[in-house]
C-alpha cells in the first residue's frame, strides 16, 4: 500500500515537473503595450467624430479659463473697475495700482491656460491636415472654429502682455523667442481670416448669440483687432480703414449672421436672457453641469451684502457717468453704497445682476459671457471711420443708435434730443465706449491703444461722494506704478522667463 | 495571452489537486527537548533543520519538538538566537535531547535574501533583519512602525498622522528625482506589495536588503532597496494566541492662533492701515473678549480610540503545519468623524507531501475602510482651513444651522470645516486578496526546485459625499488592480571538501492590469447622501485601463571557502512592457566578497574579538517605475462644453507628450562593511559605507507653459548618494534576573544632484497652496534633492526706507523681500527638506516577570518649509486675515519690528523655513508576564505609550510629516496643512494557550 501510494506520487511529480518546464519553455508575459484600449489615438484624425471631439475640447478649455476673473484680470487696470483694499485681492490690486509683478498668480495662470489651449488648437489643425470628410461644409466649419479660437485667445493674451512667443506646432518648441507686435497681430489676423473664410453665415443648430462662431463673429473680432493695430503699440494707421470696413461688413449683414441690438439694455444682464442676438460670440456656462461662470454675483458685493469683494466700481467713474437708463443698467444705484462698512464703492449691476436675479451668496451662475457685443461693432465703425477719415452718415447713425438706446429710446428711430451729427466722431465714439462697456473689462485696452492711461488714471479721486459722516470718500487703491507706456503691458510670468530666458529679451 | 492563462491555470490546478489529496509517506521520526544548558529550562522557538535541506521545525513553548528524518545519516542542526548552534547525526536515535549553550552567537541566524536563505554569518551583502522579537513589546498597527528606528539605513516617516495614512520608507537616501522612491516589498516571495496592507502581527521577520549586491537579484525594481517579509508558520504543538489592546490618542499640541478679540483688533488695524474702515466696533470686541469666540482647532480635534484584537492558532497536524490568524482593528482618529477599520485573515498552510516535495499555500485577505479621511494636504486640507477659520463666527447660527461661511467674509474663504467634517460621508474601502502557492521539490540531494505562484487583487472603492454649499455633490471611483507572478527557482548546493558552492537560477514573469472607473455627481436636487447620486443634476464619468508585464531571468552563484572566504555573484535580466523595443531589456549584475578574519590564528586567540568579517560589494540595479504607456503621447477626453447652456458635449485635448526613447534608471552602488563581534558576540557591531550613483534618471522634465505646459519623462541626469550605516546590538546587562538588550542604529548620508542634462536647475512640481501658481521646490545641480524655492524674507520696510519702499509699491511696515537692482523679487533656493541623519535607540529590559521597551528615534540635518504657518500668518490666497499671535508684535511706527503689518505675505519664503531636527520617545512599554498558570501557556499584560515626548524646535505639529506623499522626495519637508501625529496610550493583553 505504501509503495503504491509512493508510485502514484511519482506520477504526480512527473506531471508537475512537466508543468513547470512548460512554463519555463513558453514565454508567457505579454510585453507589448497597446494604449488604445483606454485612450483616444493620438495623431491624425480619420473621421468626423475625432475632429468634433478635438474642436469641442477647445471650447471646454475656453470655458475653463474664462470661468474666473483670472481671464480678465487686466481689466482692473481700467478707470472703471477696482477691488478690495485689503482682502486677498493682491493680484487684482497690482493691476489696479499699476504695479504688476512678474509673480502675479492670475497672469501666470491665465498665460498657462491660454497656451495650453493654443497647444490643443495646434494639435487639432495638424491632425486635421490630411483629413477629407464626405461633407466639406462640416469639415470647414469645424476647422474654421479651431482657427477662430486660436486667433481669439492669442489676441486676448497680446492685449495683456504685448509681444508673445508664437507657438504654432503641436510639438512644443521650448526656446521660442518673442515675436514682434506686428508679427503677433499678423498671426491673429491670419487665423481670423481663415475663420472668416471657413465659417458659415450662421452655425447650424445653435441658439442666439453665436455660441459657435460664424463669419460675422470672425469679422467682428477682426474689426477689434484692426482698431487696436491702428493704435499703441503698433500704430499702423492704415488699419483704421480696415477696422471700419470689417465693422461695416458685419453691420450690413447682421441679419444674415443673426445679430441684432437688444432694444433694452436692462434685459442684457439677466440670466434668463443669456443667449441673445447682441452677442457676436458667446461663451456658455452651466452651474449644474459643473461648468459654472464664477465671475459674477457674490464677487461684486462687499461683505455688507455677503460679498467676496472682488469687482467693485470706481467712484470717480461712477460720478462722471452720465445719468440715464444706461447708468441704471450698469450700476445698482439703489444701494446706499457710500455707507458700506466693508468698503464704500458703487456696485456693478452688470456684475451682481439686477435685483433678485442672482442670490446674494452665489458666485457660480449660469450667466454667459458676451465675448463681444454688437454694440462694440457699431462703435468701432463710428470711431474707425473717424480715425481713417472716411466718415459717412452711416457712421453717425451707428454712433447714434447706441446713444439712443442708452437714453432709453428706440435705437432705430432718429431722435434730435440725443443724436449727434457733428464734431470729432472718433473721440465721441471713443467716449461712448467708455460708458457703454463700463464694467465689462474692456476699458483698459481702450486706454492702452490710445495711450491715455495717464490721462485717465491721474485723477481718480471722488469729487462729491460722501458718507453719512459727511466725509468725502477716497479712491480705494491709489496708483503706485508708472502710467507711462513702458508700464502698459504686464510682465511675462517669471517662471516662463526662467525656463526660457529668450522671453526676457 | 490565451496560452498563458491556460498554462498558468493548469499549473495552479495541479497544485490545488496536490493540496486536496495531499498524503505523505512515513519516515523515521525523532523527538526530543531543547533546553538551556545553564538553567535547564526549555527553549521555545529553536530552529531545527535537517542539514542541506529546507526541511525542519521549531520547538514549542516548552522546548519540545518532533521531526521526521529521511535516513540515519541525516544531520540535524539546532540553532537559536543567542545560543551556539549544534549539529547532531541521527544514527538510529529516536530521542535527541539537546543542551544549547547560551553564548550569544547572534551570527548563526538564517536570513532571507530573496529566492533563498543564507546563514547570517555567510552574508556578503548589507542586510538588516528585524524579527518579531524586536517589536513584540510595541503595539504596532502598521508594519512600518516595526521598522522605524530598528534597522540602520532605513528612514521611516509618517507623511501624516491620519489613521491608515501614508508612511514614507527610504533605504539609504533617495535616488530618483521625480520617480518613486519607495522600496520594493516582497511578501513570501511575491513581489510588489504595499506595506500598509500587511498585518504586522502575522510577520515572522523582515529583512532589509540595502546594498546593490543584495538587491541586484531584483534587477529593474531593486534600486530603492528591498524589504523581504516572511509570514509566520506553524510550530509543532498546537497553540492559540490572543492579543488584544486598546488605546486612546490625542493631538500632542495645539498650534497657537489669535483669540477672537485679538483677531478682531488686528483685523481692524489691518484695515485702518490702508484707509479702510473697521469691521468690528469696540462693543463687538468687548463681546468677543467676554465670550472668547470659537476655537475651531479644539472643535476639530478629539480623543481618538484604537481597539485591536488578534487571534491566531498555529501548530502541526501530521504532515501539515498551519498558521491561521484573524485581526480586527478599529481606530477613531483624533479629528472628529475620522476613522479606520481593518479586518484581515491569514492562512498559511504547509505540507510535507514526502521527503522530497513540500507544498504550501498562503492566503491573505483584508478589508480596510478609511472613513472621512483627511488626506491630501494643500489648500483643501481641513486642518489648514480649521487653523485659519474666522474665530468670530460661531460654528452654528441662532437657528441651530451651520454658519457655512465667515459672517464678515474674514479669514479663510472655505466652507465651515466643522460643518464639512460633520456632514461629509467619505469611505475609502480597500479589499485585498492574495494567494500564494509555493512548492519545493528536491530533485537530488543537492538540487532543489521551487516554484512560487502568486495571485493578488486589490479593489479600492472610494465613495465620497460632500455638503459644500450651495448643493451637495458626490464622487465615486473604483480602482481595481490584479497581478499574477510565477517564479521558478532551481537551487544547487554542494560541499566539496572545504569548498561550498550554491547556484540559484530563476525564471519569473509578473503581469498586472489596472481598471479604473469613476463618476462625479454634482448639485444634488435632493440632499440625502452618497447613494442618492442618481438625483444629481451634473454627472460625469471617467474610465481608465492599463496593463504591464515584466519577464526576468536571474542567476546567482555563492561560493564559500573554508567558512572563511565568501563570494556572491548575481545577474538579472528584465524585459519590461513599459518601454519600447530596443529600450526594454535591462541587465543588472552584482558581485560581493567577504572575508572572515576571526578564524585566523591571531584573532581566534583574542578573547575580546569573537567575530570579524570584512565585506565589499558592487552592483547595478534599476528603476522602471513610470506609468504604463508613458512612451506614447496621450489624448484625454475632457468634461465637455454646454453649447446650448444646458447639455454637455464631450471634447478631447492633448495630454502627455510621450517619449518613445524612455528606458530604465540605473543605480550603481559600492558597499564596504565590517561585522564585528565582541565578548563571545555579546556585542555585535555592523558598519557599512556606501556610495551610489543613479544615472539616466526617469526625470519628469517640466515643459514651459508657452510650449503647452505639463511635463515629459526623460532619462536625464545623475544623482549621487553616499553614507554610513552603523548598527550596534548588545546585552548591556545579562544576569539571571536582569537583562538589558540595547540596539543602536545610526545612519548619515548625503545626497547630491550631479547632473541635469546640461541644465543648472529644473523646477519641481509641488505647487503652493496660496494660489501663486509657483512650485515650492527646485532641483539644482550640485545640491541635494528637496531644495525649497522661494523669496528671501528681509523683515519689514522701516520708516527710514519709505522712499525705497514706495518704488516697489510698499509702505513702511510692509513685508520686505530680497530684490535685484531692477526691483524684481529674487527667487532662489532657501532651504532643504531631505533628512541627512537618522538615529534610533531601542532598549529591552527584562527583570524577572517584568519587561520594559523604550524606543527613541529621530531625524536630523534637514529643514521644513512650514507653509501651514505662512497661511496662518495670512493675507494670502484664500486666507484673508492675520491669524498668528506673532501679529500682536507687528510693526508699528513707534515700534518697528520685523513682523509685517501689511504687504505681500509670500508663504514660500525664507520666513517660514525652520529646522526640522527632532528626537522622539516613540515607544515606552512595560509588561508583566504571569508564569505557570494552569492551562495557560503564557499570559502577559502591558501598558505602553507612543509619541509621548517630542523634542524639537519646530513650531508646527510634527516635524516628521511631509506633504509630498510617500513615493516622492523632491518636495520633502514641505508642510501644508498636515494631519498631526497623535500621542497614544495603550493597554494590552497577550494570552497563549
TrEMBL record, chain A:
This is RagB/SusD family nutrient uptake outer membrane protein. Keywords: Cell outer membrane, Membrane, Signal. It is found in: Cell outer membrane. Pfam families: SusD-like_3, SusD_RagB. One of its GO terms (cellular component) is cell outer membrane. Its main location: membrane. Residues 48-227 form the SusD-like N-terminal domain. The keyword Signal applies. Residues 365-505 form the RagB/SusD domain. Belongs to the SusD family.
UniProtKB/TrEMBL annotation, chain B:
Its main location: membrane. The keyword Transport applies. Residues 120-226 form the TonB-dependent receptor plug domain. Pfam families: CarbopepD_reg_2, Plug. One of its GO terms (cellular component) is cell outer membrane. It is found in: Cell outer membrane. It comes from the Bacteria. It is a multi-pass membrane protein. Residues 964-975 have a biased composition (Polar residues). Residues 959-979 are annotated as: Disordered. Keywords: Cell outer membrane, Membrane, Receptor, Transmembrane, Transmembrane beta strand, Transport. Coiled coil: none annotated. InterPro entries: Beta-barrel_TonB_sf (IPR036942), CarboxyPept-like_regulatory (IPR008969), Plug_dom (IPR012910), Plug_dom_sf (IPR037066), TonB-dep_OMP_SusC/RagA (IPR023996), TonB-dep_OMP_SusC/RagA_CS (IPR023997), TonB-dep_rcpt-like (IPR039426). Belongs to the TonB-dependent receptor family. NCBIfam families: OMP_RagA_SusC, SusC_RagA_signa. This is TonB-dependent receptor.
Amino acid at each position: 500500500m505504501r509503495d503504491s501510494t509512493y508510485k502514484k506520487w511519482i506520477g504526480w511529480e512527473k506531471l508537475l515537473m512537466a508543468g513547470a518546464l512548460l512554463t519555463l519553455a513558453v514565454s508567457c508575459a505579454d510585453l507589448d503595450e497597446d494604449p488604445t484600449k483606454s485612450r483616444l489615438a493620438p495623431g491624425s484624425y480619420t473621421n468626423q467624430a475625432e475632429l468634433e471631439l478635438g474642436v469641442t475640447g477647445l471650447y471646454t478649455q475656453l470655458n475653463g479659463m474664462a470661468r474666473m476673473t483670472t481671464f480678465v484680470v487686466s481689466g482692473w487696470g481700467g478707470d472703471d473697475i477696482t477691488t478690495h483694499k485689503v482682502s486677498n485681492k493682491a493680484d487684482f490690486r497690482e493691476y489696479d495700482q499699476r504695479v504688476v509683478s512678474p509673480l502675479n498668480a492670475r497672469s501666470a495662470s491665465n498665460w498657462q491656460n491660454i497656451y495650453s489651449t493654443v497647444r490643443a488648437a495646434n494639435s487639432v489643425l495638424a491632425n486635421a491636415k490630411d483629413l477629407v470628410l464626405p461633407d466639406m461644409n462640416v469639415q470647414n466649419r469645424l476647422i474654421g472654429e479651431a482657427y477662430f479660437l486660436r486667433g481669439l485667445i492669442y489676441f486676448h493674451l497680446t492685449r495683456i502682455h504685448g509681444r508673445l512667443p508664437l507657438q504654432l506646432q503641436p510639438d512644443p518648441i521650448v526656446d521660442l523667442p518673442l515675436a514682434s507686435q506686428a508679427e503677433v497681430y499678423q498671426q491673429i489676423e491670419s487665423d481670423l481670416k481663415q475663420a472668416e473664410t471657413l465659417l458659415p453665415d450662421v452655425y447650424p443648430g445653435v441658439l442666439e448669440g453665436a455660441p459657435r462662431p460664424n463669419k460675422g463673429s470672425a469679422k467682428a473680432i477682426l474689426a477689434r483687432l484692426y482698431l487696436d493695430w491702428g493704435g499703441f503699440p503698433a500704430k499702423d494707421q492704415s488699419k483704421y480703414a480696415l477696422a471700419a470696413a470689417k465693422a461695416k461688413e458685419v453691420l450690413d449683414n447682421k441679419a444674415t449672421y443673426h445679430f441684432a441690438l437688444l432694444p433694452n439694455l436692462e434685459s442684457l444682464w439677466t440670466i434668463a436672457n443669456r443667449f441673445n442676438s447682441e452677442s457676436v460670440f458667446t461663451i456658455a456656462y452651466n452651474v449644474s453641469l459643473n461648468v459654472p461662470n464664477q465671475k459674477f454675483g457674490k464677487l461684486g458685493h462687499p461683505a455688507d451684502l455677503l460679498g467676496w469683494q472682488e469687482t467693485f466700481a470706481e467712484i470717480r467713474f461712477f460720478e462722471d457717468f452720465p445719468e440715464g437708463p444706461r447708468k441704471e443698467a450698469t450700476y445698482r444705484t439703489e444701494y446706499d453704497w457710500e455707507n458700506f462698512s466693508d468698503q464704500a464703492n458703487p456696485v456693478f449691476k452688470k456684475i451682481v445682476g439686477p435685483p433678485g436675479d442672482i442670490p446674494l451668496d452665489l458666485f457660480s451662475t449660469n450667466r454667459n459671457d458676451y465675448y463681444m457685443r454688437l454694440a462694440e461693432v457699431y462703435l468701432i465703425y463710428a470711431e474707425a471711420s473717424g480715425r481713417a477719415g472716411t466718415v459717412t452718415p452711416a457712421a453717425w447713425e451707428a454712433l447714434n443708435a447706441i446713444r439712443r438706446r442708452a437714453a432709453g429710446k428706440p435705437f432705430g428711430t432718429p431722435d434730435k434730443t440725443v443724436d449727434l451729427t457733428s464734431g470729432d466722431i472718433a473721440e465721441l465714439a471713443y467716449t461712448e465706449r467708455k460708458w457703454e462697456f463700463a464694467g465689462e473689462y474692456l476699458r483698459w485696452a481702450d486706454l492702452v491703444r490710445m495711450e491715455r492711461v495717464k490721462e485717465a488714471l491721474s485723477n481718480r479721486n471722488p469729487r462729491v461722494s460722501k458718507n453719512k459722516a459727511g466725509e468725502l470718500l477716497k479712491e480705494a487703491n491709489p496708483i503706485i506704478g508708472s502710467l507711462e507706456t513702458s508700464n502698459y503691458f504686464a510682465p511675462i510670468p517669471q517662471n516662463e522667463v526662467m525656463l526660457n530666458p529668450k522671453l526676457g529679451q | 495571452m490565451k496560452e498563458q492563462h491556460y498554462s498558468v491555470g493548469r499549473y495552479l490546478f495541479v497544485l490545488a489537486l496536490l493540496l486536496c489529496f495531499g498524503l505523505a509517506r512515513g519516515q523515521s521520526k525523532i523527538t526530543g527537548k531543547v533546553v538551556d544548558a545553564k538553567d535547564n529550562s526549555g527553549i521555545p522557538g529553536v530552529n531545527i533543520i535537517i542539514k542541506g535541506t529546507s526541511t525542519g521545525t521549531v520547538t514549542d513553548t516548552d522546548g519540545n519538538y518532533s521531526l521526521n528524518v529521511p535516513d540515519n545519516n541525516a544531520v540535524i542542526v539546532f540553532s537559536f538566537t543567542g545560543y551556539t548552534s549544534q549539529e547532531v547525526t541521527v544514527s538510529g536515535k529516536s530521542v535527541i535531547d539537546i543542551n544549547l549553550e547560551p553564548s550569544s552567537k547572534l551570527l548563526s541566524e538564517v536570513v532571507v535574501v530573496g529566492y533563498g536563505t543564507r546563514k547570517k554569518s555567510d552574508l556578503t551583502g548589507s542586510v538588516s533583519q528585524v524579527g518579531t522579537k524586536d517589536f513584540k513589546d510595541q503595539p504596532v498597527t502598521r508594519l512600518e512602525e516595526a521598522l522605524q528606528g530598528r534597522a540602520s539605513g532605513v528612514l521611516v516617516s509618517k507623511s501624516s498622522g491620519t489613521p491608515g495614512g501614508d508612511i514614507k520608507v527610504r533605504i539609504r537616501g533617495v535616488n530618483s528625482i521625480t520617480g518613486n522612491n519607495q522600496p520594493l516589498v516582497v511578501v513570501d516571495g511575491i513581489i510588489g506589495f504595499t506595506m500598509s496592507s500587511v498585518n504586522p502581527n502575522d510577520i515572522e521577520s523582515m529583512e532589509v536588503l540595502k546594498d546593490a549586491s543584495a538587491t541586484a537579484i531584483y534587477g529593474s525594481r531593486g534600486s530603492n532597496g528591498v524589504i523581504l517579509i516572511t509570514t509566520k508558520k506553524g510550530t509543532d504543538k498546537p497553540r492559540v494566541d490572543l492579543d488584544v489592546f486598546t488605546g486612546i490618542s490625542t493631538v500632542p499640541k495645539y498650534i497657537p492662533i489669535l483669540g477672537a478679540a485679538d483677531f478682531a483688533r488686528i483685523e481692524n488695524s489691518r484695515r485702518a492701515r490702508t484707509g479702510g474702515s473697521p469691521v468690528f466696533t469696540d462693543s463687538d470686541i468687548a463681546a468677543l473678549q467676554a465670550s472668547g469666540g470659537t476655537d475651531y482647532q479644539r472643535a476639530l480635534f478629539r480623543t481618538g480610540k484604537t481597539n485591536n484584537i488578534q487571534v491566531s492558532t498555529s501548530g502541526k497536524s501530521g504532515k501539515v503545519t498551519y498558521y491561521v490568524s484573524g485581526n480586527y482593528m478599529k481606530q477613531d482618529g483624533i479629528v472628529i468623524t475620522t476613522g479606520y477599520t481593518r479586518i484581515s485573515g491569514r492562512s498559511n498552510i504547509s505540507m510535507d507531501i514526502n521527503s522530497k516535495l513540500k507544498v504550501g499555500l498562503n492566503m491573505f485577505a483584508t478589508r480596510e475602510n478609511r472613513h472621512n479621511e483627511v488626506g491630501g494636504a494643500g489648500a483643501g486640507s481641513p486642518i489648514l482651513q480649521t487653523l485659519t477659520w474666522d474665530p468670530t463666527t460661531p460654528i452654528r447660527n441662532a437657528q441651530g444651522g451651520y454658519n457655512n461661511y465667515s459672517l464678515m467674509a474674514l479669514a479663510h474663504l472655505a466652507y465651515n470645516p466643522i460643518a464639512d467634517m460633520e456632514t461629509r460621508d467619505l469611505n475609502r474601502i480597500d479589499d485585498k486578496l492574495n494567494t500564494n502557492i509555493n512548492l519545493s521539490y528536491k530533485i537530488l540531494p543537492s538540487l532543489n526546485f521551487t516554484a512560487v505562484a502568486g495571485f493578488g487583487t486589490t479593489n479600492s472603492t472610494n465613495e465620497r459625499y460632500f455638503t459644500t454649499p450651495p448643493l451637495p455633490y458626490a464622487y465615486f471611483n473604483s480602482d481595481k488592480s490584479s497581478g499574477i507572478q510565477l517564479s521558478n527557482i532551481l537551487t544547487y548546493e554542494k560541499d566539496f571538501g572545504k569548498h561550498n558552492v550554491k547556484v540559484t537560477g530563476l525564471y519569473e514573469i509578473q503581469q498586472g492590469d489596472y481598471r479604473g472607473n469613476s463618476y462625479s455627481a454634482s448639485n444634488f436636487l435632493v440632499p440625502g447622501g452618497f447613494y442618492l447620486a442618481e438625483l444629481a443634476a451634473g454627472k460625469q464619468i471617467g474610465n481608465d485601463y492599463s496593463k504591464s508585464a515584466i519577464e526576468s531571468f536571474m542567476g546567482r552563484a555563492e561560493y564559500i571557502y573554508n567558512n572563511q572566504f565568501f563570494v556572491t555573484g548575481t545577474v538579472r535580466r528584465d524585459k519590461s512592457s513599459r518601454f519600447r523595443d530596443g529600450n526594454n531589456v535591462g541587465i543588472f549584475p552584482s558581485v560581493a566578497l567577504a572575508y572572515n578574519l576571526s578564524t585566523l590564528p591571531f584573532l581566534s586567540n583574542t578573547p575580546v574579538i569573537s567575530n570579524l568579517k570584512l565585506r565589499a560589494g558592487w552592483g547595478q540595479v534599476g528603476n522602471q517605475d513610470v506609468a504604463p504607456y508613458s512612451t506614447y503621447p496621450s489624448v484625454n477626453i475632457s468634461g465637455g462644453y454646454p453649447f446650448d447652456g444646458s447639455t454637455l458635449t464631450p471634447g478631447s485635448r492633448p495630454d502627455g507628450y510621450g517619449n518613445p526613447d524612455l528606458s530604465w534608471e540605473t543605480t550603481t552602488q559600492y558597499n564596504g562593511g565590517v561585522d564585528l563581534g565582541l565578548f563571545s558576540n555579546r556585542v555585535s557591531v555592523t558598519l557599512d559605507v556606501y556610495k551610489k550613483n543613479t544615472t539616466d534618471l526617469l526625470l519628469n522634465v517640466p515643459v514651459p507653459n508657452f510650449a503647452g505646459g505639463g511635463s515629459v519623462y526623460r532619462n536625464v541626469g545623475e544623482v549621487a548618494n553616499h553614507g554610513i550605516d552603523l548598527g550596534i546590538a548588545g546585552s548591556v546587562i545579562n544576569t539571571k534576573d536582569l537583562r538589558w538588550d540595547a540596539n543602536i542604529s545610526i545612519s548619515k548620508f548625503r545626497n547630491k544632484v550631479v547632473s541635469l542634462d546640461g541644465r543648472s536647475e529644473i523646477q519641481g512640481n509641488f505647487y503652493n497652496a496660496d494660489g501663486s501658481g509657483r512650485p515650492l521646490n527646485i532641483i539644482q545641480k550640485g545640491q541635494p534633492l528637496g531644495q525649497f524655492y522661494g523669496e528671501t524674507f528681509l523683515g519689514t520696510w522701516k520708516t527710514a526706507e519709505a522712499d525705497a519702499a514706495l518704488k516697489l509699491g510698499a509702505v513702511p511696515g510692509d513685508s520686505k523681500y530680497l530684490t535685484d537692482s531692477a526691483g524684481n523679487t529674487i527667487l532662489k533656493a532657501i532651504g532643504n527638506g531631505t533628512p541627512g541623519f537618522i538615529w534610533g535607540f531601542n532598549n529591552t529590559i527584562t527583570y524577572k516577570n517584568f519587561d520594559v521597551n523604550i524606543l527613541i528615534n529621530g531625524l536630523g540635518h534637514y529643514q521644513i518649509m512650514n507653509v501651514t504657518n505662512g497661511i496662518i500668518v495670512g493675507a494670502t490666497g484664500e486666507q484673508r486675515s492675520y491669524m498668528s499671535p506673532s501679529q500682536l508684535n507687528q510693526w508699528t511706527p513707534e515700534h518697528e519690528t520685523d513682523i509685517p503689518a501689511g504687504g505681500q505675505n509670500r508663504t514660500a519664503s525664507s520666513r517660514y523655513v525652520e529646522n526640522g531636527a527632532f528626537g522622539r520617545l516613540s515607544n515606552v512599554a512595560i509588561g508583566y508576564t504571569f508564569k505557570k498558570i494552569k492551562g495557560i501557556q503564557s499570559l502577559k499584560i502591558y501598558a505602553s505609550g507612543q509619541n509621548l515626548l517630542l523634542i524639537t524646535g519646530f513650531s508646527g505639529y510634527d516635524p516628521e510629516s511631509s506633504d509630498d506623499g510617500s513615493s516622492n522626495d523632491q518636495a520633502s519637508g514641505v508642510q501644508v496643512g498636515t494631519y498631526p501625529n497623535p500621542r497614544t496610550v495603550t493597554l494590552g493583553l497577550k494570552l497563549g494557550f
